[in-house]
Amino acid sequence: MMPPNLREKAVRGFFWTFSHQAGKQGIGFVISIVLARMLSPELFGLVGMIGIVTNFGQVIIEGGLTSSLIRSDKVTDADFSTIFFFNLGMSVLIYLASWFAAPAIAAFFRQPVLIPMVRLYCLTFIISAFGAIQATRLTKELDFKTQLLVGLPAVVAGGVVGIVAAWFGAGVWSLVWMHLVQAVFSALHFWLRSAWRPSFVFEGGRLRHHLSFGYKLVLSALLFRGFKNLTQALIGRYFSAAQLGFYTRAQTLKQLPVDSMSMALNKVSYPLFASIQHDNQRLRVAYRSLMQQVLFWTAPLLIFAAVLAEPLFRILLTEKWLPAVPIFQLLCPVGILYPIHAYNLNVLNVKGRSDLFFRLEIIKVFLGSGFIFVGLQFGIFGLLAAEVVFSVAALVINTHYSGRLIDYTLRQQAADVGPTLLLTLVAGAGIWWFDASVSHWSDLARLVVGSGAGALIYLLLANALQLAPFIEVKKMVMNRR
Questions:
Q1: pTM above the 0.85 mark?
Q2: Do 69 and 75 form a contact (C-beta atoms < 8 A)?
Q3: Which end of the chain is more exposed for a tag (fewer CB within 10 A), N or C?
């Protein structure tokens, strides 16, 4: 079990960051459902093409420097101000690069409309840079309550603009303006709610210090994002905008339970892990507890959603989105493994091993690219199958090396999460059998009764088997009473 003082910090931080993440994801999801009903899959595919560009740009702008600020024991105002101006300068350069690259991007995807879309959408680089350091300071101080008060209004404002624009026939531009307005509101609120202001200071020594750690992370992130976006780019290039729309919609739905809990805990765990980076025993205990908790709650959500995907998509998105169902079902196993990847990589970062992080990314990119290009020969579902196989292979690599740093091997990690995964499969099989026998019911009845029965089976078995993550939460709830 996690040490009491760390558990108290983690619970308090997790409450606010989960509220932020779940609220942001939940509101964003509702907005995306409304827009998905109003707009065609092709339009979401166009925005998915732009997303490939913005992912790279954001990585370069941040440069891993925010991670360096969070993990550093002694950080002064000079550090924050230096990184603020560096990020701002980089954002302008990346925006100019995006502006001139827009015709080439449009030519690659054979979509001329991408030229003005890229040039407008990528303004988010410069806008977001104005609030990045304020967000970093709040994360370092574990002040996730303020981030909640910043994030939710931004999502709502962007969503309202997007829906109104779609209502008046703006088409794909409604999605572009939604993201742009969200970035403006977020940056503006960070300035209004944060007392910190950058000083006119730029110290080359402090920049070199953070770059010595951060540049390896940015190279690693570029490799990771490049590979992660490879499937998306290939679908957009060799198939159609509609197919890419189905893929991005399946990805969004798959990431909803993963991001709500996993990203919330990841945001809390990194500064916490950094605070105990020199104590391997406490780090191992904290990591084990967090990993078990995330999987215990996210794995069944993804499996249940995969089993009930057809009625789920029909209710939320209507019949026009049903081609995304098999894509979603194939991606769910990748979502289950994502938290384990994230926490193992966090261990490398808090240990200051960005060099090892980078080397592992090189290995995984070469390995994954081979899988992807073999999968491409078998069409879009070959690509998706390759993504699943690679996720398992990458997990073995990540856990092996991070486990050596804190004496927590792949076998030990598998033993700790194995019961949860096995229980999830049992409950999922029960839902599948039940749903097959009531397929004549309405979609809503299948969804409500099936998921309810699955949750009941899962929790009852978890209690009977005394699974560690379930018992830990149960004790915390009982103690608070």
A1: no
A2: yes
A3: C
